[in-house]
Amino acid sequence: MLMNLLHFVISIWVPLVCAVIIVAVLPLVAGYIVLMERKVMADMQARLGPMRVGPHGLLQPIADALKLLIKEDIIPDEADKAIFWFAPLISVTAAMLAMSALAIGPWFQIAELNVGLLFVVGISALGIFGIVLGGWSSNSHYSLLGALRSAAQLVSYETAAGMAIVGALLLAGTLSTREIIQAQNDYGTWFAFAAPVGFFIYIVASIAETNRAPFDLPEAESELVAGYMTEYSGFRWALYFLAEYTNMVVVASIATTLFLGGWLRPFAGTPAFDFLDGFPSLLMLVVGAYCFYRAPKQPVKVQNLFMVAVGLLMFLAAMILAAPLVPAVANLLPGLKPGLHGAFWFLLKVGLYIYLFMWLRFTFPRYRFDQLMRLGWQFLIPLSIVNVMGIGVALVLHRHWGWGHLPAFGLTTLLTLLVAGLLGWESEKKDKEHVFVGEA
Amino acid sequence: MLDQIVFYFFAALAVVSAILVVTRRNVVQSAIFLITALLATAGIFLSLHAEFLFIVQVILYAGGIMVLFVFVIMLINMDVALHQIQFNRQWWLGLLLALVVGAELTIAIAIGRSHLSFGDPAPASALEPSTQLVGKVLFSEYMLPFEIASILLLVAMIGAVVMAKKKI
Amino acid sequence: MIPISQYLWLGMVLFTIGVIGVVTRRNVIIILMSVELMLNAVNINLVAFSRLVGSAEGHAFAIFIITDAAAEAAVGLGIIIAFFRNRETLLGDEMDLLKW
Question: Which DSSP category does A403 fall into?
Fold first, then answer.
């Protein structure tokens, strides 16, 4: 019986290692995404951001994590203790479980499900319970209001995101994450170019899904204290925060898999663009060189050494990424190139998508809650339904009537944009009707 | 062997959660245990090679219907309900009748198990591309019920909106 | 595959627990939740037989049942909210007047 168990564990060692990596590394990655956000925020506000803790603030997330771990654990007196304890766990579990069906590179996937993409969407929808139960169990007005608003927002934009995904799934023909990327390889273009309106709808809906600005009314500090997270402090708050940033990574991974070609290099099918294979190592080299350049300028000797170490790490990464390009190694281990380079391109695209999230956060003012709900129900959902119909029409034109890719998809994109303009004009009119007493 | 462990785990989780649903005093705790019962059922679907149904159960039932329940529970003030008697006056009769129903079903299954031959189970690969098979069945043989279901949902939406409005 | 009678027993147990919930509890929201339990028990039966036979028709029927349950839960909760607004009670025992 024990031998059976051992055999079973050995047979699933790859998914097991991937799962351990995700559970161990993802919190660290989420912490560094927080640092990236602070640096990007600082950059867009013409200042520098965290610079003290570690060179260029590189050790800031670790300091933050330590601080949160040793903070006092306050539980409100009237709170329902069991649910209060359990709610952040639901959020974190849902977010991390959703990562299990996503393929980060051809090598890195925990579970190859037949219904992979739907699994990811469905499990991240279970994160709503963490928010609602957390807000309710805190037994405070701000928390409950924030939780209900946040849950209403998530449910509304989930529909629009789901329909946008359906639009791209029509092109892919399958729900399995690996096969979707393979379908993009066979198609020749990424689905973002074949269904641009769907991609746009998914970007907007995913910003609302993760409660990011400009849709972050439920957790904005000036509005509802901190919404459903008000009564949480210390590590419980860190768990909610971790769940939010992990959700960002999950949503970015879905967009990358479905719209941006997953682990495919740009122009993966064309041999003329093979020079792009050198881009990963080049990027790592440039970052390493920058680290070495900034190392002597650090104020403290320890930070100097740390920068040199980071620089050396970047050079090592560049060498590892350049290894599959050497013909000798490529002949020895043919699976190395798709594996390593695939993971690099996937993570680059996820990083760019998250940068887009941050860019939008620091550019646009916040939506008021009724404007938010109106945008979701009266603009995005009708537009996403029209998008699905449009892609259906484009597929019929392309497959049955023999039109080319560009005319078919171009025509339907134009028609969908026309409908979008109509819908946008309608809601502009309605917005102007809401003139408050005392104005005009 | 793995099949059995998975089945017994999910079955035990489902039964325990179900018992807790009908016996809790706090309605929110009942709702949470119903969510675990639904997720356990979804696990059973997955072990029966019904992948599409598993994810439909998670998305619709646990992620949709239960969110609706939890919303309504939070919008209605339940403090009074916590201190009332939770079982009605004729609970003994209800329990008796429910056990009679259970006994009937037990007899039916016990007799059927030995007297009807269900035959050999079909190979698991017969249900393999789960989504495609369900889609094929839904859109060819059961197209009419499918359309009726969509109209039913429309009617339910309109009904729920009208019901919950303050002034019609 | 596990013998199908195991799934039938599980369905039976869940169904009975659901029936107990419906006829014994006073709180109408818990009655609605017990109805959902019964529908789930039926779904387990359907999917088990569908696996036995190897056809996806049982899955389609189960999807219809889930759709039905969603519609019923929405309308039922709407009715509960409307009733609560009028009479401030959530107990099935006290919802006994058609008009007053």
Answer: -
Q: Which residues contact B23 (CB under 8 A, 6 or more apart)?
A: none
Percent of chain A predicted with pLDDT > 70: 96
Nearest to A114 among B51, B59, B71 (CB): B51
ipTM (interface predicted TM): 0.93
- How far is A274 from A303, CA to CA, in rounded Å? 38
Average pLDDT score over chain A:
87
* A249 and A378 co-located in one domain: yes
Q: Does the pLDDT of residue B117 top 70, yes or no?
A: no
pLDDT at A324: 82
**CATH number at B1-86:** 1.20.120.1200
Cβ-contact A293, A310 below 8 angstroms: no
C near A: at least 3 beta-carbon pairs less than 8 Å apart: no
- Cα gap C32→B69, rounded to integer Å: 9
In a domain, A171, yes or no: yes
Band of pLDDT at residue A223, cut at 50, 70 and 90: low
Question: How far, in Å, CA of A164 to CA of A389, rounded?
Answer: 11
Q: Are residues A200 and A52 in the same domain?
A: no
The answer to whether residue A331 is domain-embedded is no
Identify whether residues A140 and A254 lie together within a single domain: yes
- This prediction has a pTM of 0.91
**Interatomic CA distance for residues A310 and A295, integer angstroms:** 10
Chains that touch A (3 or more CB pairs under 8 A): B
* Coil, strand or helix at A225: coil
Q: What is the pLDDT of residues C62-85, one digit of tens each?
A: 999 999 999 999 999 999 988 888
Tally of domains in chain A: 3
C47 part of contact set with chain B, CB < 8 Å:
yes
